[in-house]
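note to self: dont lose this again. the chain is below, predicted strucutre after it. 247 aa total, dont forget to put it in the shared folder this time
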Amino acid sequence: MAASSTSTPLLYSCIAHTTTILTEHTTSAASTTSSLASLILPKISHSTPQKLTYTHAQNFIHYIASSPSEYPSSHSSAGGLTFLVIAPSNFGRRIPFGFLVEIRNQFLRQYDPSTTDFSQMPAYGAADFNKSLKSLMVGYGTTEGGKKDAISNAQHQIEDVRGIMTENIERVLERGERIDLLVDKTDRLGVGARDFRVRSRGLKRRMWWKNVKLMVLLGFVVVFLVYLFVGFGCGLPGWSRCVGSSK
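---
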């Protein structure tokens, strides 16, 4: 994963095809924001085009997801692309979305959908775009010119953004709800319950065998004690007095 210590409010960005990250850059090698991508990408649907924001702690995770319906059938693999960026919540949404529009445009210019099958690209198969990603993150996050370009990009598509985001994000934010992407607690509870059942069955089997061994050992001890007790009266080791008296 490409990383730098350059200070910019755009903390992390990646371009992925479905769940496969093709290129990425983070502004801090110690940042934990990059791990969020693996949690978010499986949640993204490409059935329709999406522009969406998730909230996590003090950060916003913004993404633009393409859909096959946006491209000719011969270019349909481009419909699985996702352009994602993470930034502090106080950085707003217009600049991050303007940045996403720009990286989408530049990426598709460099990797023409008419000649590129994105579904066949391996992980980090577009790593040569990392430098462009880094440059755009710094430019759009720190320079006035970059910020203006980002806002201009967002304004050019503002109606489209507003239509999608109002349905998916604004209504959620107005209710004051937050979408937590760290863990799915239901899944964790389910996994914990299965692990507990497996451990319980294993413990039950071990305890059963332990009891069986204890009972067998106790049986041998009882038989041995009876042998000794009777033997003392009949004469060990052949119980000659008892055997002889019976004759």
